[in-house]
Amino acid sequence: MDALQKRYEAALRLGAEAAAMAMRLRPPPGAPRAKLKHAQDWLTEADGAVEAFLSQQLAALFPEDGFVGEEGGCARSGRLRWVADPIDGTSNYARGSARFCVSLGLLEETTPLIGVIVAPALGETFAARAGKGATLNGEPIHVAETTDFTRAMVECGWTARLPHDDFGKLIVRLIDAGAAVRVCGSGTLALADVACGRLDGYMERRIHLWDVAAGLCVLAEAGAVISPFLSGSGAGRDDPILVAAPGIAQTFAALLPFAIPGWTRNG
Question: What does DSSP say about strands 111-119 and 80-88: parallel, antiparallel, or unpaired?
Answer without folding.
Answer: unpaired
